[in-house]
Sequence to fold (797 residues):
Amino acid sequence: MSTASARIPFWRDVRVLRVSAQLLFVLVIVLIANWFYTNLQINLERTGIRFGFDFLWTTAGFDISEGIPFEPTDSYGYAFWVGVVNTLRVIGIGIVLATLVGLVAGIARLSSNWLVRQIAAVYIETIRNTPLVVQLFFWYTAVLLKLPRVDESIELPGPIYLSQRGLALPRPYATESFPWWGVVLAVGLLAALAVYIGRRISLARAQRPGFPALWAGGVFVLCAVGGWLVLPQAPLAWEIPTLGRFNFEGGWQLSPEFAALLAGLVVYTGAFIAEIVRGGILAVPKGQTEAARALGLRPLQVLRLVVIPQALRVIVPPLTSQYLNLAKNSSLAVAVGYPDLFNVANTIINQSGRAIEMVFLIMATYLTMSLLTSAFMNWYNRRVKLVER
Amino acid sequence: MLLRLLRRVRENLFSTWYNTLLTVLAVWFLWVVLRGLFQWAVADAVWSGGADACQQARQLAQAEGRPWGACWTVIPENLKLLLTGTYPPGELWRIWVCVYVSACVVGVSAGVWRGLMRDVAIALGAAAILLLFLPFSWAERLWICGIACALWVPMGIGWLARSRIPRGVLIGSWLALPALIIWLIGGGGPLLRVESVHWGGLMLTFLVAFVGIVASFPLGVLLALGRQSTLPIVRWFSILYIEIVRGVPLITLIFMASLMLPLFLPGNIRIDQALRAMTAFTLFTAAYIAENVRGGLQAIPRGQIEAAQALGLSSWLTTFFIVLPQALRAVIPANVGQFISLFKDTSLVFVAALLDLFNMGRSILANPTWLGSDREVLLFIAFVYWLFTYTMAYLSRRLERILGVGER
Fold:
């Protein structure tokens, strides 16, 4: 063997080939990058743009229609931050609502009721097969902007008001007794923790499954409700939106742009999540449920200890990519004019001409969000996986 | 018969009290939605005449204080824009030739190869027949009817002459088809040149999707192989590329391509907006294809590679004749899904200031003549997208069953 390998000429030696192939690859990449870089230098010199991020501290000079307080005299960097916060707001609310919609639609798709099953199927198949940006534009121009004027707004129970200016919802606000209720909640949390640990220990001693989390939750809810009733004044009250001269005042106001973006993202992502939920539930073999029943588990225990852990194992990885898709799709806000980070960055580019820096910032922000989300979901996935064995 | 039907209805709709409640709620929901939809889209709708007819109907409805119906005339009036953009009207025959030649090639292959290809031809023909129900003029309906004929007649001929057509002719015509289409649409030689700014509507949607699909596939396979490579530098480069592209929205890539590509190229190389958008779509889809293909590569049993090595195949031969054929076959359904989403994503070309089907619709809606017809135009556009994506999804499911993927 050693004599044979000694005779192999160096141009056929695997080790030499591996190193030289990689060197060649690096060389090609460096050459291409260098070519791009030289072109960039020449083009930038010709147009007189200088590369750098110092422009972020200069005055923006434009206004942003919604989000955290922003003045045209603030800097470009702060404007971008406002956009980031707006994006995070849509993503946060969107993920929660899309999961709920997907869960309901996915279960409805498996319902024993034929009609419900068909309605869910039509919803999923139409929404999944049309582009999101068409849907967003439809929500915005064909639904929200076609709503009646503010003084003729539709009133839904709540009261929620629908009009061309968007949605106006009641908003909870803290009254004077809220701090005291906070103290009660903290005590309740401690009590719940104590109950949880106590139940865990006694169940472990008795060596049988049970619901320690349910007990703890019950204790906490009991404390919260008790505190609410005992305190002389309700700790939270609803601020009802009232019609002012031009628009609703008070309450929680959603602009039509935000409402359209949220509705579009939730309905679109919900349809995809519904398919994932359906697949996850179907992936648990019927024998598992039957075996659990034969072992004497109660229906709720079958669901909690056998079906859900196994279904979650199938559901979580694709669900992660749907959440990531929702986050990335929120950049389509530019189609309806909601000032998310992409839209604001676009305005900054139009005003300052700093295309390269801003595109770099946009990409870096989205990459960070994607990596953080997938890191969190991977952590959760590992936890769910542990249930397996 | 009736009794069995009744029993089926009771089992499926009224088995328990909450099932009955659900049924009643669903029927009420359907009644409200469908009645409103019917009133708007059919009963009160304006089907013919120009923009004036719509205005009159709207004013009449407003005077009577009832909601007005749909104004479907906006579709036939703007059909040329929606389908081909600002393509010169005198050269439109070239697009028809493209459609008919493609239909003939698909039809003949369907007749000869049968299997899934036959389903494709039948589905496309059926889609063309479905299009007849949309408000087109009779001349246009005749042209559309011709598409179905151009699919189904060659299919019959191909089936009859299947033993006499050599294999090479069909494959050759498939390879020649893209070049022919690009030449017919773009012009050159004896044909008048049509710049890409005049490409638009559904035609542009198809062109972008088609170029994206064809160009991204080899790139994606290369990236997948790179990610599985034992050479660390190649592997890390592939991982970096795939993860970065998958971590950012497509819209930023199109934006980057349309804004920054000229900055990275020498001043004498000019590429137009359509090509820039196609580059972005290719680079984007390649990363996703790479992940799909990686799944297929990982699913190949180790024994296959070891057996190939034992037989004395080099690593290149092993990759191209043992690993890739099996891996690609296993990931065809996933890739079809990727291409469906690419087709939907072509609606994002507005970032590069291109006017595809959706964005042509948007510019029509910005025209004061058609103000307020948003629902009609958007529903039509959504329907066209749905028609093609649903057909593709259906075929992908058939393909899955034929390949037996997921049954192992």
